Amino acid sequence: AILIAKAGWPWVPAAAAGGVAACVLALVIGYPCLRLKGPYFAIAMLGLNEVLRALVSYFEALTGGGSGLSLPTLHATVPIYYAMAGTAAAVTLLTFLIITSRFGLRLMTIREDELAAEAMGIDTARHKLYAFLLSAAGPGIAGALAARDQGYIEPISVFPLATTITMIVMALFGGKGTVWGPVLGAVVLFVAQELVWARFPYVHQLLFGAIIVAVVLLMPRGVLGILQLKYRLPRTI
Fold first, then answer.
1. Is the separation of the CB atoms in 48 and 33 below 8 Å?
2. Rounded CA gap, 225 and 236, in Å?
3. CA distance 137 to 159
4. What's the pTM value of the predicted model, to 2 decimals?
5. Nearest to residue 25, comparing CAs of 61, 7, 53, 52?
6. What separation in angstroms does the CA of 215 have from each of 96, 106, 197?
7. 3-class secondary-structure state, position 227
8. What H or E segment, with its residue span, contains residue 166?
9. Domains of the chain: which residue ranges?
10. What is the pLDDT of residues 125-156, one digit of tens each?
11. Rg (CA), the chain
12. Which of 55, 114, 130, 189 is deepest in the core (most CB within 10 A)?
């Protein structure tokens, strides 16, 4: 958004620069934060979210501060839509390729038991950092495209805690550690959120809270995890 509003860049290279900038930021904060484990890592990420919002608001000359930035009017928004769809497809394909690779198997080993992975000779710190960098590129590009599509961006709309929680809930609901789980969770919960919001404003937050409790207690593997257990694993008598 800064490159478009301040430097007059076209939105395509600006979106690519957004992905690169996200990876650089992930490298800077990932190296120290990935040494934290369990809830401490989650707390650190939430704290960094607030720190970044404060920094963006402080550097008013560059970011527009709390008032944000207005981007030049974009008359044709269809290319932005296709760029967003292409980014989503590319991220999904990359996730599939990673899961089916040796790198993905090592990541799943780290997820299940990090100490065992280290005992097997896996450099857990390096693998987690690579995964952190890869997970930053897609949102960086998508964020730049969203800013270009909306024509306006401000700190309060970029760093809300509700957005972070919503994305986590979508991934958990669909099935963490799967290719299509986050896609399914995003589609189903987005539609449900819009339907609930249209009839009962602000009740959608209660809906997401109930979903978090239900997923943690009743289906920690998510919807796809339940389907995989039901249709792929052999049944025992």
1. yes
2. 18
3. 17
4. 0.80
5. 52
6. 24, 26, 21
7. helix
8. helix 161-174
9. 1-159, 161-237
10. 899 999 999 999 998 999 888 888 888 888 77
11. 20
12. 189
